[in-house]
Amino acid sequence: MLMYYINFNLSNSLDHLKSAKYIKCLGKGAYGTVKLYQCKDNISCNKLFVVKYIKYIFKNKDNDKLLRKRVLNEYTIGTLLHNEYIIKTLDIDLYKNAIIFEHCNGVDFLDYIQKMSPCFEKKIFYFKQVIDGLIHMHNIGIAHMDLKLENIIIDIVNKKIKIIDFGHSKVFHDSLHIDTFILKRKIYGSVPYIAPEEFLNIEYNPEKVDVWSCGIILYIIIYNNYPWYKADIRDLYYNKYLISIKYNKYFFIKYNNLLNKLLNPDPSKRPQIKEINFEDLL
Length: 282
Hints:
- By secondary structure, the protein is an alpha+beta fold.
- The protein folds into 2 domains: 2-102, Phosphorylase Kinase, domain 1; 107-281, Transferase(Phosphotransferase) domain 1 (Transferase(Phosphotransferase), domain 1).
- 35% of the residues lie in helices and 17% in strands.
- The protein contains 7 helices and 10 strands.
- The strands form 3 sheets. Strands 1-2-3-5-4 form a 5-stranded antiparallel sheet, with helices on both faces. A 3-stranded antiparallel sheet has the order 6-8-9.
- The longest helix has 20 residues, at 120-139.
- The relative contact order is 0.09.
- Residues 1-12 have low confidence and may be disordered.
């Protein structure tokens, strides 16, 4: 059933891209390029849409197979997510290793903080939307695995965020939410946001990795800086944090209670996303 659905959309994607007008490149990264297109009004809806072209990471004999698997994985996960705070996945083009998303006209959360200097209340307003979007993801058993400010787009006009980029996303629950799937020893995401258990060469729960990343995001919202570069004992600031926990001392000046919960080095003691209590921010 899944392959039938993909093949059906694949033919539509090719026609759609052929009739679209290229507008500009929105960004380039280690895993691909994101470009903005517009449907031609005599062909389709004249709306803007975004195409993410996924590229090879390593050169080996299994490149084509691995790349197609990555594209299909990100596309399939995207089609399962239906929430106002999550970007819509519209289509796929396997010939071009591309995924088509809705266009969100805005800025990423990091630029919003650094360039627009919003008040704390506005930043928390959008952070709560991030949590609502993640609750939806986790409720259907999907962890984002690369949460960071750059992967959250803010539509300032409509006052709404969109979580983007599911390239590292993983399923962590079965359909009945009986069993939790634990990831094998592998690191995902951007270093300042990565949970400490990922660096320990152990198996870990993807759900609690997202919770940790939310704690880092919240810290940046509050302090306009990162708490440490890497959640590793060799990092001076992270080591100081571990010492403060050991001796029950305050490490965070503001909102110590909530940050300590989200950034607990022991993932089993971190709350689930749905358990985050914003009264701790009052």
